Every structure is written in structure tokens, then in C-alpha cells.
């Protein structure tokens, strides 16, 4: 994951509320190919990479050992995500949508619905939980995907004994 980026990198993670089709993924990848080649902070080129995971999770990474991202450069990246969000009519900015993988499929659960999703076995203790709040390369490599019962979100449910 992000093999071209090393050291103290940062990541920005946005999960779509639905699976992306091939033409949408192509559109997004083309946008970020151009963006990553031109992305700069205070006139200095940033070393960046972009990937789509599981046809639904968009991740932009920057190697901050090479050149740190600035507020203005981060604003430019956010503008690209907003453009994609609006053009494709997807929801990338709802941070109350939690992302799980159950039986190799991405499952989006609204925070308010986490208990009912658990009770109905839409998600389980062993479901993979994507902690999209991580913001470093180290964290995305080591603690982005964790079993649900080892995540911060697990504290949101009540176990019926």
C-alpha cells in the first residue's frame, strides 16, 4: 500500500456511500493522476499517490519527509474530492458513515444504526472495520483495517447477554 511513499506520510480517506463502477473509477483515477503530478505546497512539488480500495474507499497519500503538505495544498485536494462527490453524486463527506467488510463485501453503516446492524448480523465481531479517522501512512498500514471488536466503534454497541 503506497509503496512509493515512505516515512512520515499523511493520508486522507474518503469512503463513498456506494460501490463505484468502472467508468467512475476511471474518472476518479484520471483526476488524481493529473492532480498528484501537479500537487504542490509553497511552490514545491509534493510526492503523492492515490488509490481506490474495494471499489469504494478513496485514499490520497503524501510523503511528508519529501515535502510537507500545507493548508492551501490540503484545500486543493479537498476541492478535488468535492468535485468528484458532486459530479458522481456520491457522498464522500459523511463522517457518520462507518465502513466495514463482511464476507468480502463493503458494508456502510450509519453511526446511528450500528446497534441494529450488529443485532441483525449485518456486521459481526470479526467484521473488518475501516478506521477512516487514521491520517498517517504508518497508521493506514498498521491499524486502518481491524476486527470490529478491536475498534473504537465497538464501544458504540451493547452486547445482549
Features:
single chain, 161 residues, 2 domains, four-stranded antiparallel β-sheet, globular
Number of helices: 4
What profile does the largest beta sheet have? 4 strands, antiparallel
Ends distance:
39 Å
H/E series, N to C?
EHEEEEHEEHEHE
Report the β-strand fraction as a percent range: 25-35%
Quaternary structure type:
single chain
Question: How many discrete structural domains?
Answer: 2
Q: How would you state the average pLDDT, rounded?
A: 93
- Morphology: globular
Strand order of the largest sheet: 7-6-8-9
Please tally the β strands and state the result.
Answer: 9
Uncertain parts: none
Please characterize this protein's 3D structure.
- The chain is built from four helices and nine strands; from the N terminus they run βαββββαββαβαβ.
- With 161 residues, it is of the alpha+beta class.
- It has two domains: 9-88; 97-131 and 145-156, no CATH class.
- Helix 1 runs antiparallel to helix 2.
- The chain is globular, with a radius of gyration of 17 Å.
- The mean pLDDT is 93.
Helices and strands in order, then pairings?
Layout: E1 9-15, H1 22-38, E2 40-41, E3 44-45, E4 48-53, E5 57-63, H2 71-88, E6 97-102, E7 105-110, H3 114-119, E8 128-130, H4 137-142, E9 145-147
Antiparallel strand pairs: 1-5, 2-3, 4-5, 6-7, 6-8, 8-9
Amino acid at each position: 500500500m503506497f509503496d512509493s511513499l515512505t516515512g512520515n506520510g499523511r493520508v486522507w480517506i474518503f469512503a463513498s456511500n456506494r460501490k463505484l463502477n468502472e467508468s467512475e473509477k476511471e474518472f476518479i483515477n484520471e483526476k488524481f493522476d493529473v492532480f498528484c503530478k501537479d500537487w504542490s505546497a509553497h511552490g514545491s512539488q509534493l510526492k503523492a499517490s492515490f488509490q481506490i480500495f474495494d471499489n469504494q474507499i478513496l485514499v490520497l497519500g503524501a510523503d511528508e519527509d519529501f515535502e510537507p503538505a500545507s493548508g492551501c495544498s490540503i484545500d486543493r485536494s479537498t476541492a478535488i474530492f468535492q468535485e468528484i462527490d458532486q459530479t458522481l453524486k456520491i457522498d464522500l463527506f459523511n463522517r457518520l458513515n462507518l465502513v466495514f467488510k463482511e464476507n468480502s463485501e463493503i458494508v456502510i453503516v450509519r453511526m446511528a444504526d450500528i446497534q441494529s446492524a450488529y443485532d441483525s448480523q449485518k456486521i459481526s465481531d470479526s467484521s473488518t472495520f475501516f478506521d477512516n479517522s487514521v491520517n498517517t501512512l504508518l497508521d493506514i498500514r498498521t491499524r486502518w483495517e481491524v476486527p470490529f471488536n478491536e475498534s473504537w466503534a465497538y464501544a458504540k454497541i451493547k452486547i445482549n447477554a
